[in-house]
Design brief:
This protein is an alpha/beta fold. Helices cover about 35% and strands about 20% of the residues. Bound molecules: S-adenosylmethionine.
Length: about 450
């Protein structure tokens, strides 16, 4: 499953694109292997409904984090029909231990994580942000899609905050699952070094006795100069896989009110570590575009997807605010210092707001590995079904003649199915009419049983 071939394709969309749509539809339209970094901050299966506070910048934004199999029928039937038994059984297992809502949530996530894997370059990485509600199940799911050997870290982001609990300790950490697509994943650990703790500095004599350490290290290692030792130590340390130095958002100026907004500093660390300037960063659950803003500031290309139209408004406001902030900083403190990401107006010298393409239009894949519908698919399916004059129908199971069969989309186009070979099957005329262009295969079978029992006409 964790397979990556060598081709790398150009992105089939513009830098700074924001799609307002279901991310599965959009991800399916993105070329394979064109993205360097994906950060996903999906709903966590918290069984809550989130609303932005009235009066906040994000007022009106909301999303539902409750899950039922009924709401993810299309995904579930696609997983049932698709030839990925490992994924299917992982989800079934989670459903058995944690219930139907977990099964529904993971069905939703599985297809999206699969698409993320497809669009990543072989050097790309995925950071999947979750919390203890589902992190253990999501890790299993992502292990199936990426290959268990490709997990790089399970990062624990710790924060503090109020909470009145009596039956357990306060739950104050999130988990960020970091996967590389292959062993060649981009990783710039030097770019994200952090200061040593006071204790470490004291232990090493950094504060008072640094000079003596340097001179003794020069004595013991004559090839390394004192300046080198000093510079190396001065860069700080590579962070551990538990992050305690990034505060959760409370009332900081960057807060928009978007439910579950993440701190810019968190995304800055991820982007700096796992991409290079000019690389392409995608966030399929963009919210108020923390990833997009961080990518812009770090000089990366970016695209975001969110199903809530309010995301566009808030994103534009945030970008504008960053520009204003940079104008102030530039004027007050930094003079004419370069600011990555934003361009300057040639005549006025002002920082200008980047042009964002906001669209509901699904991208159309242009890469050579895109799947299409082959002209001989009817023929191919007929031969796959066996030999002789008749073949079994995938719906009712009855043996039918060749001319009785219709070519059918397994997952209806109306439910996100695609017009590709993998989604086409032969159904007898009766089943095809019964299924129409809305029912999934599971629903068709249910309908056929009801008919058999005389419960419906
Ligand atoms: C946890 S929030 C992301 C917050 C974001 N990281 C930030 O800092 O603002 C999850 C987001 O996913 C969006 N969402 C939920 N289902 C979606 C779907 N099927 N397609 C696209 N976006 C979706 C919600 O509207 C919500 O904004």
């Amino acid at each position: 499953m964790a397979h990556a071939n060598k081709i790398s394709h150009d992105a089939n969309f513009l830098n700074r694109t924001l799609w307002i749509d279901d991310n599965l539809r959009v991800l399916r339209g993105i070329n394979s292997e064109c993205v360097d970094l994906i950060y996903l901050d999906p709903p966590f299966n918290s069984n809550r409904f989130y609303n932005a506070p009235l009066g906040s910048e994000a007022a009106g934004a909301q999303f539902d984090d409750t899950w039922s199999l009924d709401a993810v029928k299309a995904e579930w039937s696609e997983l049932q029909e698709a030839a990925n038994p490992a994924l299917y059984h992982t989800i079934i297992g989670a459903g058995l231990s944690a219930g139907e809502s977990m099964q529904a949530y993971l069905s939703f996530m599985a297809l999206r994580v699969q698409e993320c894997h497809r669009i990543l370059k072989p050097t790309g990485s995925l950071y999947l942000h979750c919390d203890p509600h589902a992190s253990h199940y999501l890790k299993q799911l992502a292990d199936v899609v990426f290959g268990a050997q490709n997990i790089r870290n399970e990062i624990v982001w710790c924060y503090t905050g109020p909470g009145n609990v009596t039956r357990h300790f306060k739950r104050k950490h999130d988990t960020i699952l970091f996967y590389g697509k292959t062993s060649k994943t981009t990783l710039n650990l030097d770019a994200v070094r952090i200061p040593y703790s006071k204790e470490t500095l004291a232990r090493r004599g950094r504060t008072e006795g640094m000079k003596s350490i340097i001179s003794s290290s020069v004595e013991t290692n004559s090839r390394r100069s004192a300046a080198e030792v000093e510079a190396r130590f001065g860069k700080g340390k590579v962070p551990e896989d538990w992050w305690v130095d990034i505060a959760a958002l409370t009332n900081q100026p960057e807060r928009t009110g978007w439910p579950t907004q993440k701190p810019l500093a968190l995304l800055e660390r991820i982007i700096e570590a796992s991409s290079n300037p000019g690389d392409l960063v995608v966030d399929p659950f963009a919210g108020c575009a923390t990833t997009c803003v961080a990518a812009e500031l770090a000089g990366r290309r970016w695209a975001g997807i969110d199903i809530d139209p309010k995301a566009l408004e808030v994103t534009m406001d945030r970008l504008r605010r960053q520009v204003d902030l940079r104008n102030t900083i530039t004027a007050d403190k930094l003079g004419t210092t370069q600011m990555p990401g934003f361009a300057r107006d040639k005549t006025s010298g002002d920082w200008i707001l980047p042009k964002v393409t906001a669209t509901g239009e699904i991208p159309v894949r242009t890469d050579p590995t895109r799947q299409t519908r082959s002209p001989r698919i009817r023929e191919i399916r007929w031969h796959e079904l066996g030999e002789g004059d008749c073949r079994p129908c995938a719906g009712c199971g009855k043996e039918k003649y060749r001319e009785d069969f219709h070519l059918d989309h397994i997952v209806p186009l109306s439910k996100g199915g695609q017009d590709i070979d993998a989604n086409l099957q032969l159904l007898c005329a009766f089943c095809n009419v019964t299924k129409g262009n809305r029912l999934t295969m599971a629903e068709l079978r249910q309908r056929l049983v009801q008919r058999e029992l005389g419960l419906t006409s």
